[in-house]
Amino acid sequence: MYLDTELKMVCLQRGYRNETWFSMARSAIFNFQSLLTVILLLICTCAYIRSLAPKLLDNNQTGLLGIFWKCARIGERKSPYVAVCCIAMAFSVLFVQ
């Protein structure tokens, strides 16, 4: 709450419109397209790291670090679908936004 108020005050002091502070306060979690981009990058990165050093991710199959192992498995097993999603996201970022 305090961060939002402080960001709003800074934006108003710099002469931005009142709606601008809200768009500056959003992160990838609140923007669906950015969230999908982050998830795709995580899946591709984990699959690539597992191809280089399998022991690095295979040691942590459970717990919080198990998320990276699961992302690597998704990247390996669903690689055609992940590739299509990456191409669609690249087209969307380059030409639609």
TrEMBL record:
Keywords: Golgi apparatus, Membrane, Signal, Transmembrane, Transmembrane helix. The keyword Ligase does not apply. The chain crosses the membrane at residues 28-49, 79-96. Its main location: Golgi. It comes from Pogona vitticeps (central bearded dragon). Involved in the early part of the secretory pathway. The keyword Signal applies. GO terms for cellular component: Golgi membrane. It is a single-pass type I membrane protein. This is Protein kish. It comes from the Eukaryota.
